[in-house]
Structure formats: C-alpha cells, structure tokens
C-alpha cells in the first residue's frame, strides 16, 4: 500500500487519520513541527515537518505517494513545489465549507482555505478537499471544560445558535477512505455531523452523558467578546461570533457524506461527548 504522510499528526484530526490509516494497514509517516511530542507505535515513521520551514519538506516527502494536509496559505507554494518534485500522487486537504457557504464575518477563514485549494488545483496534483463546517472539538477551545469542571456551568452567547458539529474521527474516516480507495480524486466533500444542535442542547447532552446538572448562563455579545479576547485573534473572534449570531435559532444544513463514503452513519454529538467525557469531569 502507498506510503502516506500525515502532516499535523499531533492535531485532533491528524492523530485520528494516523490511527485509522494504521488500522487499514497503510504505511504511515507522521509529520509534525515538534515530532518529539508525538506518542505513536514503532511502526510509524516520525519526521519533523513544518510548512513554514521549506527545508523540512524534502525529507518528509521522500518516498511518499499521498499526503494529508492542513490549510496553511503561507507555506503552500513551497509545499507544492516539494510535492511535485517528490512525485506525490494525491493530496487530501482539510479545508472548510466556508469556501462555498459563509457569512460575511467568516471572510478571512474563507479566503485562507480558498487560497490553499486554488493553489493545489493549479499544481495539477490530484486532490480531495474535505470541507467540514463546525468541529465538535471547538468547544474545547472556548473554555467549556474548565468552566464545567469548576462551576457546573458555561457562560456563553447565543444559546440557540445551531451547528452541524462533526466528530474528528468522522473527518479522519473520510480522509482515510480517500487516501486508501479509488474514486476520490479531484473531488470536494461537505462533511457534517448527523444533527443540527443548538449550543444550549450541546450543554444538555454533556450533562446527560456525564450525569451532572449543568447551567447555561447567557452572555451578551460584548461580554462574549471580552471573554474570548485572550483565547483567539480578533479575526477569529469576528468569524465565530458572526456565525453564532447568524445561526441563532436557524437549523444548519447537513450532509450524508460521511455515511456515503465510509458506510457508517456520522457520530452524534452525544458519542463525541462520551469519547471526551474526561475533559468535562472534575
């Protein structure tokens, strides 16, 4: 089976791609900025790979047929030059559905992913673009685990904002199908979870899974921006707050792509919480 380089192997999705490729019997090379931090089976070759340091790319790509890639516009030109030189035959890119369906506040996210997609298309290397919208793991960034563990509540805006939260394992499963099976070249896939879930309902589900009463304390947008300021850059804050405002009370679009490609239904948010229950448990 072709050797696959997984760039960003320490990330939530990348780590799952590595695990599922190994389960499929693939030869895997794991690339990361800090490979010494990876804890992987001995069968996995680990190599330093930094898209912003092109001198790391030649060794990382040597002998590789396929690549799983995150969207990093600043390093894409050097990466594609190195990939062509190495004879890479397919790139599976973790992109974003914002390239085709976005609110105005999400423009920087849209442009970032568009730039990488367009560069890959122009390179002539066969590609598969994975376009999820809302990662279930996002709530791990917003301070929910810490607040739930300490106080049994979350303080957050727009409790009725909907999202199509998708488990990272499902994104990885589609990536692995594209990397190991035929028929996915030069395709783009919108990926979502199986349900449109409000933020209030997400907290209720966490409560049900961990068996502890939890409270949603609604913040104003201004209060939310103050709370998010230490966590994310302003452009990310504008994008996520804009999304929450526009999706307030409005169910989001869903896709059956995960089931069509992998043969199993996308995991529910409750399944995601069960997999991450330790994060919310004191």
Task: Please describe what this structure looks like.
The chain is of the alpha/beta class and 282 residues long. The chain contains 13 helices and eleven strands. It has two domains: 3-134 and 167-191, NAD(P)-binding Rossmann-like Domain (Rossmann fold, 3-Layer(aba) Sandwich); 138-163 and 194-252 and 267-280, UDP-galactose 4-epimerase, domain 1 (Alpha-Beta Complex), CATH 3.90.25. Helices cover 43% and strands 17% of the residues. A seven-stranded parallel β-sheet has the order 3-2-1-4-5-6-9, sandwiched between helices.
Query: What value does the average pLDDT take?
Result: 96
Measured on Cα atoms, how large is the radius of gyration?
19 Å
User: What structural class is derived from the secondary structure elements?
Assistant: alpha/beta
Helix count, DSSP H or I runs of 4 or more residues: 13
Reading side by side through the largest sheet, how are the strands ordered? 3-2-1-4-5-6-9
Low-confidence stretches: none
What is the level 1 CATH name of the largest domain? Alpha Beta
| Oligomeric state | single chain
Residues in helices, as a percent range: 40-55%
E-strand count: 11
Can you identify the CATH superfamily of the largest domain? Answer: NAD(P)-binding Rossmann-like Domain
| CATH topology value of the largest domain | Rossmann fold
